Amino acid sequence: ILQGQPSQPMFSQNGDIVIGGIFSMHYNLILRKPTFNVIPEPLKCKGINLKGFQFAQAMVFAIEEINNSTDLLPEISLGYKIFDGCSFPLLAIKGAMELINGPEDEMTFNESCSKSFFAPGLIGQSDSTSTIGMAATLGPFHIPVVSHFATCACLSSRKEFPSFFRTIPSDYYQSKALAQLVKHFGWTWVGTVRSDNDYGNNGMATFIQAAQLEGVCIEYTEAIYRTNPRERFLRTVEVIKQSTSKVIVAFVSVVDMEFLINELLLQNVTGFQWVSSEALFSGKNLATEANFKIVGGAIGVAIVNALMPGLKDFLLNIHPANDPDNSSSIKKCTGSENLEEIRNDYTDVTDLGVTNNVYKAVYAIAHSLHNLITCQNKAQFENHKVCLDKNVNFTTRSGDIVYFDSNGDPVAKYNLVNWQLTKEGVTQFVIIGVYDASLPEGQQFKMKNVPIIWAGNQYKVPKSVCSELCPPGTRKAVQKGRPLCCFDCIQCAEGEITNKTDSTECMNCPLEYKSNKQRDLCILKEIEFLSCDEIMGVVLVIFSLLGTCATVATASVFFHFRQTPIVKANNSELSFLLLFSLSLCFLCSLTFIGEPSNWSCMLRHTAFGITFVLCISCVLGKTIVVLMAFRSTLPGSNVMKWFGPHQQRFTVFAFTLIQAIICLLWLILSPPFPYQNTTHYVEKIILECALGSTVAFYAVLGYIGFLSAISFVLAFLARNLPDNFNEAKYITFSMLIFRAVWITFIPAYVSSPGKYTVAVEIFAILVSSFALLFCIFAPKCYIILLKPENNTKKKLIGKSTIK
After folding, report:
1. CB within 10 Å: which end of the chain, N or C, has fewer?
2. Which cell locations does it reside in (predicted)?
């Protein structure tokens, strides 16, 4: 039941159907006065809200327009009862109860409110908190509440507020618009301030959610309310002063914003770029030259302006004599006032965005009543007649087509505005863009090519980021314990690049490419192989040719002096075969130099394996010949007939054939092939010959090692033979060097990188070849060329004592 003294409507008119209205035509002085040391007093509704009066007159204007219409609700007159909400939720709810209960003399004490239905619809209130209370109060009675300025997204819930409608878009859309506006100007680090009520809390929650989807981070979020003690506002101001973000997003009502601006002015807190919801741009009392110092250059959303033909004349024609019963509690006018000379919020018709929403709200109720009366598809629902027709869209007399979605909200369309100051010191809201939620995603947000004035009266877009954008070649690494927008820029690792600004990860270059020094471009890697064009390759080629020439020269000397005793005594046939194999050993090293190909890879390893076995087989044959020759000089010995020239040739051929078979199997089963090694070095590609079969490669080396070991052992055993016959000690020394070289070759080969692997192998071939050439043939050449007197049969068969 309704308790307390009934309120009298500010404006009323009888009719067949009476529509209710609640507007804040006065301010609650305790909540309005911008000072912080007030003492709580009883509620005082004394400060006149001229904009609220304009809203009320706009409702009257629309009702009179409908009553004069022959198309909408013909033969039915609409009346109205308009109460003052006084910017106080409880008074708004009380006014709503007055409307649904009817006049006091028509009520019975303790009578249920539901039995004295009075108004079929209610228009109001301007703030979300009051409207939520009204919608919750009238919801059980299925009385529609149509608001012109309550934007809280929470009111879109059909489950909680089934009878609520509005002619202003939900904050859900302007929150998205603000998030896209912030992202458009590259602000990823912002602070937020909100009113600590349904409007601010719900609106800011939606903004933060939308902003995070756009990659925007929130440094701080502060809540203020007009009744907070001054210390609370001082704390908010201190947070703003200490912040590193230069952009503040505000979802603050006009009254709360006035308190905050007042404190910011006292402390001279300037230079911050404000981005605000529609409240800042709908209250012209804030748009002063003094406040411009704080919030000048602010951008945000504003309700789209509208034209209302005839409204200005209607507002100016208000006269006490026309409505003697209305406003009886207000001081009477003399009747001689000329409203055309007055410039205030009541007479101002330059910005009728919200006022037009009141006008559309009246038409929404009128069209609903008209549709219910003319409906062809009616049904009974909880003692009420309802129309099952789904069309809830309508057109006003001024030509505006109003569309509602399934939640009872109109389609969102906003102007994006910029708070500027003219040369004359007049503040103005310049349209810089449009947000239209009816358009497809990606086309809703459009900016105009108009100059924008930023905070501090600057023409350059301010910057507000926690961390500067990471340049190409670097990636973002989030700082521990901080939002995603705070990060360090880490240079991409070698072999990785980013060619975009603000990349979160680096991309790997293709295998054939490497990253440049700036790490923003993949460039072709250097191709590395042992070439004749470089110093190391040239040196190795020279030594290879020198070895070949030395071998040929030695062979020439032996051939020229082939009839001399020293040549004959040293088995000239094996000596020439050994020199031939040594020349091949020197020459095979050349196959390791140059760009690897299929043929060069197969040739270099097999040629090396076969020629070295041929060489070692000859050395082994010579060692056996020395031993056999010595044994044949003993009495009764007939050993040499078992190891004559034919047996020597067969031995060399057999040993070499085994190596040839190993190499043939290697080439058939898994031959060596050219390979691009991209793993050993990041910055270059190594062209090398892959072994194909590692087992085959080490089998070739192992076989060479086996033969050299036999040669070394036999030569070592023959080292104490008489000097005149002793070639074994030179073979021993050569095999010692040979084995030392190849034993050290294996770890050096495995550990050497790139082209140095090939160089190590060539070095081993050349050193071991030179060792055989000089150790075996140098002493003989010395005697042949420099000591010819020793090259006699007598010297070679000199007597020796054998024990």
Report:
1. C
2. Cell membrane
